[in-house]
Amino acid sequence: MTPQTKPLVLSTDHEPEEGVLIREIRLNNHAKRNSLNIPMVEAIEEAMLAAVADGARVVLLHGEGTVFSAGADLSGDVYAGGFYPRLLHMLGTIQTLPIPVVAWVNGPAIGAGTQLAMASDLRVVSGTALFRVPIADVAIALDEVTIATLENLVGGAVARTMLFTNAPLSHEQAVSSGFAVSQGGFAEAMALAELVASKAPLTMRHLKHEFARTSHRPYEEAERYEAAAAAWHSEDVGESRRARAEKRAPRFQGR
Length: 255
Prior knowledge:
Elements: E1 9-17, E2 20-27, H1 38-53, E3 58-63, H2 83-96, E4 101-105, E5 109-110, H3 112-119, E6 122-125, E7 130-132, H4 135-138, H5 144-154, H6 156-165, E8 169-170, H7 171-177, E9 182-183, H8 186-197, H9 201-211, H10 221-232, H11 235-246
Helix pairs in contact: 1-2, 2-3, 5-6, 9-10
Region (Disordered): 230-255
EC number: 4.2.1.17
GO molecular function, one term: 3-hydroxyacyl-CoA dehydratase activity
């Protein structure tokens, strides 16, 4: 396979226990530091939707090589009118996916790479990870959802400093601010994904509906209500009660 035809994302399945699927998705353009253009954005979105269709309970997202994502590919099509709407659509898909997405930020995440990490539900950062959003240096604007999400994750002072001055957020700051869950390698990120995958799938689905209220494509109130009702009336509620009585871990089925 030539570099021109290699897949832009790679997917690997992990099954920590029978019937529990974790889909690992890796950005696969390390030669360009996993930068984002329209084909890469579309490939990420397709991979996320495929994970849901295949029954995955959690997605574990990271970059191939030593960089999570260097952000928009400034040598390509990103200045064309279609890139930013496609980027926001992909981010909205991740935010409204009915399953959690864990990002292992295995190196620098710049610009749109930071946005990709923020669209994920939980983040584990490597010792080489850092985050930077250099919009003021390239004279572009940022959407209100990304700005509000950054402010919510790191606080107003840090968010403003990052955006006004291009100051980086180090991996230590990411953890101390609550932007990231912890510092660690792939094993730690996978352990977190396995923990989340062991929880009740319909509860995870409802939580994604609620957290998406501040996303690029929030769910309607009726959709959030339906997701809550599905969890309350599921067979998994009975399984949780049996598991407590039998002093064992529950085996949730997502129904």
